[in-house]
Design a protein that fits this description.
mainly beta; 4-stranded antiparallel sheet; about 120 residues; about 5% helix; binds FE2/S2 (inorganic) cluster
Length: about 120
């Protein structure tokens, strides 16, 4: 399969598939890279959350962070963000991260890449 075929298969209308449901676990967020931008997919209980993977404070990858109480702790300086809103909840993080509303369809998680949630 060529790269173009792969990309076409992952995009349905305005929605882009980030991963399969089984790719993300409560203890193991998933990192998806689409067109050079990295997204982090989290599972908390029955809910899924999608944020930018890159911490707004520095080079931390939030998909490698620790999740508790619907917050992710950045592995780099231990700042935290609320997964529901992207708002920083613990210093040194001060700038919100982008979030997207995940859409679950056919066993996979999609987002509208062009429509992040308002901050
Ligand atoms: S890079 Fe994430 S808290 Fe500093």
């Amino acid at each position: 399969m060529t790269m173009a075929q792969t990309k076409e298969a992952m995009t349905t209308g305005a929605l882009t598939q980030l991963c399969r449901l089984e790719d993300v676990d409560e203890d193991m967020p998933f990192r998806a890279e689409i067109d050079g931008f990295a997204y982090a997919v989290f599972k908390v209980g029955d809910m899924f959350y999608v944020t930018a993977d890159l911490c707004s404070h520095g080079p931390g990858s939030l998909s490698e962070g620790f999740v508790e109480d619907c917050q992710v702790e950045c592995p780099f300086h231990q700042g935290k963000f609320d997964l529901r809103t992207g708002m920083p909840t613990e210093p040194p993080c001060e700038i919100p991260i982008k979030t997207w509303t995940p859409i679950v369809r056919d066993g996979a998680i999609f987002i509208d890449v062009a429509s992040p949630n308002p901050v």
